[in-house]
Design brief:
- The structure is a homodimer.
- With about 325 residues, chain A is an alpha/beta fold.
- Chain A has a domain at about 1-120 and about 285-315: Isopropylmalate Dehydrogenase, CATH 3.40.718.
- Chain A has 11 helices and 11 strands.
- Chain A has an 11-stranded mixed sheet, with helices on both faces.
- In chain A, helix 2 links the parallel strand 2 (about 35-40) and strand 3 (about 55-60).
- In chain A, helix 6 crosses helix 7 (about 190-200), helix 6 crosses helix 11 and helix 8 (about 230-255) runs antiparallel to helix 9 (about 260-275).
- The interface between A and B is large, with 63 and 62 residues.
Chain lengths: ~325, ~325
Amino acid sequence: MRIGIDAMGGDQAPVQEIAGALACREFLSPDDRIVLVGDESELLANLSEHDGWHDYIEIRHAGQMIGMNETPVEALRSKPDSSVAVLVKMHKDGELDACISAGNTGAYVAAAQMQLRRLPGVHRPGITILTPTYMGLVAICDVGANVNCRPQHLHQYGIMASVYLKAIGDIPSPRVGLLSIGEEDQKGNELVRGARELMKAEENLNFIGNVEGRDLFTGVCDVVVTDGFVGNVVLKLMEGMAEGVLTAILKEVAEAMPDMARLVKQAGGEIVNKYDYNEYGGAPLLGVRGICIICHGASDHRGIKNAVRGAIDLSKRQVNETIVKLLSGSKDS
Amino acid sequence: MRIGIDAMGGDQAPVQEIAGALACREFLSPDDRIVLVGDESELLANLSEHDGWHDYIEIRHAGQMIGMNETPVEALRSKPDSSVAVLVKMHKDGELDACISAGNTGAYVAAAQMQLRRLPGVHRPGITILTPTYMGLVAICDVGANVNCRPQHLHQYGIMASVYLKAIGDIPSPRVGLLSIGEEDQKGNELVRGARELMKAEENLNFIGNVEGRDLFTGVCDVVVTDGFVGNVVLKLMEGMAEGVLTAILKEVAEAMPDMARLVKQAGGEIVNKYDYNEYGGAPLLGVRGICIICHGASDHRGIKNAVRGAIDLSKRQVNETIVKLLSGSKDS
C-alpha cells in the first residue's frame, strides 16, 4: 500500500508526522510506502538525521499549508498547493491508497468530499471516532462532517460505523444506539424520530433503540449514531471533561494525601495514557471513495503511526467494499 | 411564601421529600409554609414521628402519581389527580408561590407549560441547570424543555439564564456563550448561525460568541445556550462521564497504591460531594408565569431543601420580573 501523510497538518508538524512515519517501519510490509506531503526542504532537513528512511518513505513537495484556524473552503480555494489539497488529490488520482492528516479537519473533510466523491449508495460521509470508556471502546458517528442531517443520513451512519467496528474492533454484531434524550419511541427531535423508524426496519443493523448521553459510559452499545453537530459537541465535551475531572480529582487526592502527591500524579499519568486518543488510530471519514483518516490536531508520533495502521486495517478488511454491499441491499438507499 | 413539593415524585419519594421539607425549618421565615402534595395517609404516617412539623408544613392530598417512565402528556391526561398535576394547578390558582418536583420531568414541564402559560414576551420556556465545573459554576439553558428550537428561542434563553445567574450566582454580568462546533461565525448548523446574529445584536447580553463542548470546563463563560435536545444530551453525558471517569480513576489509583485504597476512596467521596447536584438547588423552568423548580430524580433531602431555598431566592430577587422587563425592551421579542 501507499499511504500519504499531510506532513504540515498537526499542531507539532512536521516533527510528529515524521516521527510517526519512521515508527511505521515495525509493521509495514516490504512493498508498503509512506508518502510525506509537505515542504520538501523542511522534510529533508528533518529526515536527514535518520538512516534508512529512503527504503519506505517518499516525499512529495507541497508549497503551501492550511492553518488550524483558516476557513476550510476559502483556504482550499486560495491554496491549491497546500499539503492537504495535494494529499487528497494524489489519493483521487490513484497515487495513494489512503491518506492521513492531523491538520484543519474542516479543510481535510471538504477536500475529501469534493475530490473523492461518495461510495455508491452513500448519502453523506460521516466521521467515525473510537472513544475509550471504562466499559470498552464506543464508536461515534458522525462527529462533525455533516451538521444538517436527514434521517437517512443517520440510518447510513449506523450501517457504516457497524461495518467499521466489526472489521476493526472484532465485534461480530455491534450494538447500535441512536443518541436521543430518552428511550421511548416518541422521545427526541424530528430528526431522531425519523431515523429511528428507518433503523428499526433495517435488517443489516443490530439496532438497540435510543440511547442517552450517559449510555456512552454504561456499555449498553458499541456504536452511537448522531448528527455531526451533536457528535462534535459530545466529542469536545468529553475531551474537556476528561481533562477537567482528572485535574480536579488529582488536586483533591493530592490535597487529602500530600505525602502521596507524586504517586498520585504518576497514577494520573497512567490513566491519561489509557484514555489517550493517540492509541486509537484516528477517525475515518466513512462513505468517501477512498480511505481518509483524520487525526487529532495534537496527535503525537504514536497517533500518526496508529493512523497508518488503521488505514491498512481498513483496506485489508475491506470496509468500503462491505459498506457498498450492505447499502446496495438496504431498502432506504 | 407558600412552596409546594410534589411529595410522590422522586426515586425515593416520599421519604426524601419529607426529610427535605423538615430540613427547611432552619431558613424559613415565620410566615413561610411548605405544602407537601401527595397521598395524605402515607405522608401523615411518615410525618407522625416528627415534632412541630405542623408549624410550617401542610399536606394536600393527591390520590394518583405519575411514574418516571410514563409518557408525560398521556399520563397527565389519564391522571388529573396525580401529585404533579395537583401541585401545578395549585400554583396556577394562586395557592402556591412556587413548586418543586423531583418526579417525571416531562410530565412536570408539560403540566407547567399547559397550566401556567408563559411570561409576557417569552417564546418558549427553558430549563436552566447549574453545573459545577472545576472552574466554577456554569448555567446551561435549555436542557430539555424545547427540542425543536428556533433562533429566537436560543436568543431568549441567553437573556433568561443571564438574569438567573446574575441574581442567584451574584455574577454582575454573566458571560454568555452559544454552544457550537467552532468559534467562527459560519460554524455550526442553521439554528446556531441564526441565533448568533440575534445574540450579537442584543444589548442586554454579555455575549462572547460561540463556545465548544470543551469550554464548559475552561471557565470562558458563565452561561451556555443550546437547544433542549443538545442540552439534554450534554447533561446526561456529563453525569455518566463524571461517574465513569471517577470509577476508572479510583480503580487505577487504588491499584497503583493498594495500601492507600481506603484513603483514596475517601478522597473520591469528597469529590463526589463537591460535584453533587444535590448541592445546587434544582433547575428552574425559566419563562413560565410562576416558579417551577425541577429536581433530579435521585435527589435526596438536601436536593429538596436546596430547591426550596432556590425557589425563595428566585422570588426575592425578582428573576421573573427582570426577565419580563428585559424581554419587553429586546428588539426581537
